[in-house]
Amino acid sequence: MKRWTLALGALMISGAALAQKSAADGIAEYRALLADGNPAELFEAKGEDLWKQKRGPKSMSLEKCDLGKGPGVVKGAFVELPRYFADTNKVQDLESRLLTCMETLQGFNAAEIAKTPFGKGEQAHIESLVAWISSESRGMKFQLPQDHVQEKTMYEVGKRLFFMRGGSHDFACATCHGEDGKRIRLQDLPNLTKNPGAGAGFGAWPAYRVSSGELWGMQRRLNDCYRQQRFPYPGYGSEATIALGVYMGVNGKGGESIAPALKR
Predict the structure, then answer these.
(1) Is 101 a residue of the active site?
(2) Where are the domains of the chain?
(3) What is the predicted pLDDT for the residue at 35?
(4) The model's pTM
(5) What is residue 140's DSSP assignment?
């Protein structure tokens, strides 16, 4: 009887493992089917047009914007961000860097854009720009610089924020993304503290969200994470969100960028 009980237990465990694998495989197949016609391509086209279009109070394009590889150079810039910029004396991610360029080159008010709700006005334009810029580095490997003291400091700050618990549920980023093999319902949760999870997780954003029908940049993705923690959002382009980007990006060194990807 004992042997039969043990055998039945083993069968149930293997069956559960098979069901879990099948769910993960099913989601992967679902994404593969949709990816062939990823709506993010529409945002990419709009973003390229916005980059070249003369806009703002100064009626200038963004073609002289320096994303870290020299004025106007887009290809390869995404996989090296966030990084330190001497002109602002700050570590900036793609979205905060675009705010700087939109203000200095085109005359927009960066602070006002940062306060604009996601998906509205210039915020929507930034997400299209992010889609195109990231697509220009698709397939490249992440290689975030860690040479400047501020880049190293932001990595350490991001690490502390990643493991900091807070909010009414006492959650941290690490609650969902600090271990291997975690999932929520049918959603696999990548371990963002190391590869391959860090490269796959960080390297997929920006992404088109099928559930909302919108293109989300990393800033909006982090906003939603803080919302789920029931924790106050630190603000668009804040040092906290950029530090988290540095932490995840450095951990994902060597991972391949597939952005803009497709998410549920």
Answers:
(1) no
(2) 1-36, 38-263
(3) 58
(4) 0.86
(5) P
